[in-house]
Amino acid sequence: MKKVINYVANKKEWEEAQTKEFNKLNKKVKFDGFRLGKAPRAMVEKKYGADILIDAANSLIDKEYRRILFEDKIIPILDPKIELVKSSKEELEVNFTLITEPEVKLGKYKDLGIKKDAVKVTKEEIKDRIDATLKEYAELVIKDSGKVEKGDIAIIDYEGFKDGVAFDGGKGENYSLEIGSNTFIPGFEDGIIGMQKDEEKDLKLTFPEDYGVDELNGQEVVFKVKVNEIKRRELPELDKDFFDDLGLEDINTKEEYEAKIKDDIKKEKERKAENDYVDKLFAKAVSNMECEIDDEIVEAEANEMYKNMIDRMQAQGIEEDLYLKYADTTKEDIISHLKENALKRLQNSYLLQAIIKEEKIEVSDKELEEEVNGIATEYNITKEEVIKELGGKENIRYDLMIRKAIDILKGNE
Length: 413
Fold this sequence. Notes:
Radius of gyration: 35 Å
Structural class: alpha+beta
Shape: extended
Strand content: 15-25%
Largest sheet: 5 strands, antiparallel
Order of helices and strands: EHHEEHEEEHEEHHHHHHHH
Distance between the termini: 31 Å
């Protein structure tokens, strides 16, 4: 919520503020022919008049801002915007623009008629997950004879020509190409199927119209290809040795492994279904409430999200300038794109705070203690470490209040 407060300094107060700043300055500056602090005021003001006005204005602005905070009891959530309307030796007028928490009027937030999606795991999903794991742990074995087949790894030299002239980016040596990965343009990998080691071949192909390189879009080209080596994946057996390699010492049979994979997929789907369910509840409850969030708050939240993103990257050794360069973007563009998520986060936060207030949600010391003990046991750390890592007891208490508010949203109160 935006509040604009106009402040006009009374004449006596403004004169006294200037005199105070003049006296402070006169004790520091030296004028020829005068002892320190004894120069005429007119002489000092002629040289330092602007500085005196600025310091006097800042003094009164700080004083008025403290009065707004403690007497008017207005609590801004962002730094105030201060506009100097008038400033001369005779008068001072200032506008304070303060952004406070928006007013929230809750609409319907219970019994929203939203159901959680049912979760089902198919045999195909289990097979696909197991096949992917086997492929990840497969051993690449050289095929001394035979031809390239789908799924093989062909080690190739290649060079592309358009109208008999080699084009940029169309050459590679000893390139490992998985046949069927669709890494190259359509027809390239299919053209290699059936080739033998040391065989050379010309592939006449056409680049897609939307390839993304003007001189190649929709153009006919010839790739000269040589197969240097052929490798195939030798998949491991679904046996005890393989399960042990995966760190699954309790798994002994294929059936037990399939049951575990099914359980893993089910838990993943349940987490997603839960997250989707809560997102829909938030969206519905937010659409029912009245809450105007100032653009400045959204901008500040987007900036905070950007800062957190950069902090995470720097923790991984990636500097901000390097990331922006290789992502071919700017800080301003990223923040602009973050604003939609920032608004959503703020709306959800204000919704939960309003529910906490409406439902008079509290967390007892006993509940807080049980939460801390539970986390300490789960992660095998001390209660003091839990409290420190989570930012103190009141942060933990607030998190528990948020969880209770979400439970009410879900109808689990």
